[in-house]
Every structure is written in C-alpha cells, then in structure tokens.
Design brief:
Blueprint lengths: L6 E4 L5 H12 L3 E6 L3 H13 L4 E5 L8 H16 L4 E6 L14 H22 L3 E10 L12 H21 L5 E7 L10 H4 L1 H9 L10 H10 L11 E4 L6
Parallel strand pairs: 1-2, 1-4, 2-3, 4-5, 5-6, 6-7
Keywords: Oxidoreductase
Family: Belongs to the short-chain dehydrogenases/reductases (SDR) family.
Protein name: SDR family oxidoreductase
C-alpha cells in the first residue's frame, strides 16, 4: 500500500532562499505548494522543476503584508489540495517570505517599520494561525529568522527586531501546539548571496569580503547552504527537534 506523500507549504518559494528550500524539500520526497507575491513566471518555473523531481507542486499568489487576504488565500490552498494533491490538509509550513530594509535606527521611518512588521511578524503570526486547521497533527512549522537576531550590523535594527520577535514566538508556538505533536523551529541564515535586500551581500565586493573575514568557514553563504537544513526539519529524522533556533551561518561573528 502506498505511503501518503507529505506536503509542505513554502511562502516566498519562487526565488532566492525560498526556491532553494522548496526544491530541497521536494528532493526529500515531499510535495510542495509555493507562494509568490508578483513573479508568477518564476513560480511556475519552480513548479516545473519540482515536478521534474517526481513530486507534485502548485503555486499560489500571496501578499504576506496583507493579513486581510489570508482567508481568501486559504480557500485557494484548500482548492489546490483537492485538485492537485487529492487531500484536504498539508504537513509543513515554512514561513520564508520577506523583505530586507537597510536603514539606521535613527533613520528608520514609521512607514518602513510598519512594512517590516506586517511582512516579517504580523504576517507569519496570523498566516500560521489560519493555517492550523489545514495542518496535520504531527506536522511541523519552520520560521525563518536571521543571524542578525544574534549579532548586530548597523542598519538592521527594525528588521532584526522583527526576527527576534519571530524567535520568541516560535518557542510559544512549540509549547502550545505540542499537544498536536506539531514541531516548531527557527532556521536563522547568516549573510547569503541572493537578490535579497537589493543583492548587497552578493554584489558589493567589500561587504562580501568583510562578512567572509568574520565567518569561521571563510566565505559568505549560498542558497544551497540553507535549503537542506529546512528540508531536514520536514523529515522524520527531525522528529525530536523542537523549539530550536538553528543558525546556518558558517560560524559568523563567533
């Protein structure tokens, strides 16, 4: 008798780290739903890549900054689960979607602060809350934080503060959802070469070298360094890992 394939929902899975996570999860034999904000063509390409690995996949539009759209989004999730995956629930939620705003503490505007709050904290808070009726008992949630919640670089006060809030929330979620055997963990990437934050780590050679110089393994991170860790947390091998912050930074700022 065939084993029921598990399903993961990865927000912001059309590009960058989210794309890497989605593909790494698919390589574990897990089906994947990804969300995108505006780049449908990129999302469709990821779906095709996942299907090429032998897994089912679907992409849905989601703006995590607008919690008022979440009910409608989960109506679409429900329809996709039925039509593409022939089920009514999924097993893992990866809260990855986000943006980076680089500004000093003194220079951060209320508009920037509110934008970061909505995308980095309020969005994942209420998206996860609404996801719970679709999440199987014994499943898992992976929240994405940042190394900047542990070490400090000027210009990320608001962004890192939101991620610090996510890390605290993760422990409370693990505590309260434990009765359903749902595990909740944080993955905190260090500096990674992607287009995130305008591609500053990837494209600014001075910044790249500075980060490499304070990293024990002597280089800046790549997307391939992150996805496999998130995928691991979506497997049975991680069944006893709960309420943990796993930093994946190559040993930055030790």
């Amino acid at each position: 008798m065939a084993v029921n394939t598990k399903i993961a929902l990865v927000t912001g899975g059309s590009r960058g780290l989210g794309k890497n996570m989605a593909i790494a999860i698919a390589k574990k034999g897990i089906d994947v739903i990804i969300t995108y904000n505006s780049k449908k063509d990129e999302a469709d390409a990821v779906v095709k890549e996942i299907e090429g690995l032998g897994q089912k996949a679907a992409s849905l539009q989601l703006n995590v900054a607008d919690s008022g759209t979440f009910d409608g989004f989960f109506n679409q999730v429900s329809e996709a689960l039925r039509s593409t995956f022939q089920t009514d629930k999924f097993d893992f939620l990866v809260n990855n979607a986000g943006i980076g705003i680089h500004n000093s503490f003194v220079g951060t505007t209320e508009t920037e602060f509110d934008q970061l709050t909505n995308i980095q904290f309020k969005g994942p808070f209420f998206l996860t809350q609404k996801a719970l009726i679709f999440l199987n008992d014994g499943g898992g949630i992976v929240n994405i934080s940042t190394g900047l919640a542990r070490f400090s670089f000027p210009g990320y006060a608001a962004y890192a503060a939101m991620k610090g809030a996510i890390e605290t929330l993760t422990r409370y979620q693990a505590k309260e959802l434990g009765t359903r055997k749902i595990r909740v963990n944080v993955v905190a990437p260090g500096a990674i070469e992607t287009d995130f934050g305008g591609g500053v780590v990837r494209d600014n050679e001075q910044m790249n070298q500075q980060i490499a110089s304070v990293t024990a393994l002597g280089r800046v991170g790549l997307p391939d360094d992150i996805g496999g860790v998130v995928a691991f947390l979506c497997t049975e091998d991680a069944r006893w890992v709960n309420a943990q912050r796993i930093e994946v930074s190559g040993g930055m700022m030790l």
